């Protein structure tokens, strides 16, 4: 196994960071790696907003639902859908952009954002830094847009904490890989048994790390997936011009 694979296989989310700053050299390398990540049609429909200001990180932590590690990590990167940028290119070509009004447009931009996020994660972890992705920036999207000065046709999709690791964490177990990898055809025949086994395994994990409030995987999903847990995403995205109606 090479160093890249070792880094990826040892991934864990870090929610405790030292006060030490991330150097400009490290940060530049991380961002440059994501800049080279692929995007559909070479659209480059993603922008990163790098936040190092402590007061702004504290505000983001609040908007994300009180996630203290956002304020603690010395670097927070917001990954934004950016159809404002592509609209300028389309207009230069004498055309009218409509992709941002479609489900395809939101979906492909989300894929491109995910690729950028994965690239940032691997780059940061390869330098020995800790990370944790933050979907909570979608909890109050209009306030995030205002805080970051985002123009129409953009949307803050996900964020990433980056910093030097404080308290480390052991690897969290995953569902059986057979629920993830399907050869030739999708096969869910073993899902029920795998979920039962994983619920038991994750409860053991919580016990080992001393998390008395840890609950099973299925119960955690039930708490969130019974509702649209960030209901402002659709109306705010619509106000930004990302209509999702085509």
Q: What do you see in this structure?
A:
With 246 residues, this protein is an alpha+beta fold. The chain has a single domain (3-170, 228-239), classed as NADH Oxidase, CATH 3.40.109. Helices cover 45% and strands 12% of the residues. The chain is built from ten helices and four strands, in the order H-H-E-H-H-E-H-H-E-H-E-H-H-H. It has helices at residues 3-9, 24-35, 54-63, 68-72, 83-92, 103-126, 141-148, 191-208, 217-225, 233-239; strands spanning 46-51, 75-82, 130-134, 154-163. Helix 2 runs antiparallel to helix 6 (103-126). The longest helix has 24 residues, at 103-126. The model has no long low-confidence stretch (mean pLDDT 98).
Write the layout of secondary structure elements.
Blueprint: H1 3-9, H2 24-35, E1 46-51, H3 54-63, H4 68-72, E2 75-82, H5 83-92, H6 103-126, E3 130-134, H7 141-148, E4 154-163, H8 191-208, H9 217-225, H10 233-239
Antiparallel strand pairs: 1-2, 2-4, 3-4
Helix pairs in contact: 2-6
- Identify the strand order in the major beta sheet: 1-2-4-3
Compute the number of strand runs. Answer: 4
Q: What gap, in angstroms, lies between the N and C termini? A: 45 Å
Determine the structural class based on helices, strands and strand pairing.
Answer: alpha+beta
CATH architecture identity: 3-Layer(aba) Sandwich
CATH level-1 class: Alpha Beta
The tally of structural domains comes to 1
The CATH H-level superfamily is NADH Oxidase
Main beta sheet? 4 strands, antiparallel
User: What share of the residues does DSSP label as strand, in percent?
Assistant: 5-15%
The number of distinct helices, counting runs of at least 4 residues, comes to 10
Mean pLDDT: 98
Low-confidence stretches: none
CATH topology: NADH Oxidase
The SSE order reads HHEHHEHHEHEHHH
Radius of gyration over alpha carbons?
19 Å
Give helix % range.
Answer: 40-55%
Shape by Cα distribution = globular
């Amino acid at each position: 196994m090479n160093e890249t694979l070792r880094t990826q296989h040892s991934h864990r989310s870090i929610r405790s960071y030292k006060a030490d700053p991330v150097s400009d050299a490290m940060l530049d390398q991380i961002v440059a790696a994501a800049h080279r990540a692929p995007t559909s049609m070479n659209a480059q429909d993603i922008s990163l907003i790098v936040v190092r200001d402590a007061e702004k990180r504290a505000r983001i932590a609040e908007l994300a639902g009180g996630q203290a590690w956002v304020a603690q990590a010395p670097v927070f990167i917001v990954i934004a859908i950016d159809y404002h940028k592509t609209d300028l290119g389309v207009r230069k070509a004498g055309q009218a952009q409509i992709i941002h009004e479609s489900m395809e447009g939101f979906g492909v931009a989300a894929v491109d954002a995910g690729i950028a996020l994965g690239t940032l994660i691997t780059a940061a972890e390869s330098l020995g830094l800790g990370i944790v992705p933050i979907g909570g920036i979608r909890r109050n999207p209009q306030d995030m847009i205002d805080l970051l000065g985002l123009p129409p046709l953009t949307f803050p999709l996900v964020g990433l904490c980056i910093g030097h690791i404080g308290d480390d964490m052991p690897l969290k177990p995953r569902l059986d890989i057979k629920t993830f990898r399907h050869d030739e055809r999708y096969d869910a025949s073993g899902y029920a048994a795998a979920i039962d086994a994983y619920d038991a395994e994750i409860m053991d994990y919580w016990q080992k790390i001393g998390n008395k409030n840890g609950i099973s995987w299925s119960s955690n999903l039930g708490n969130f997936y019974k509702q649209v847990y960030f209901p402002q995403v659709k109306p705010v995205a619509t106000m930004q011009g990302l209509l999702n109606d085509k």
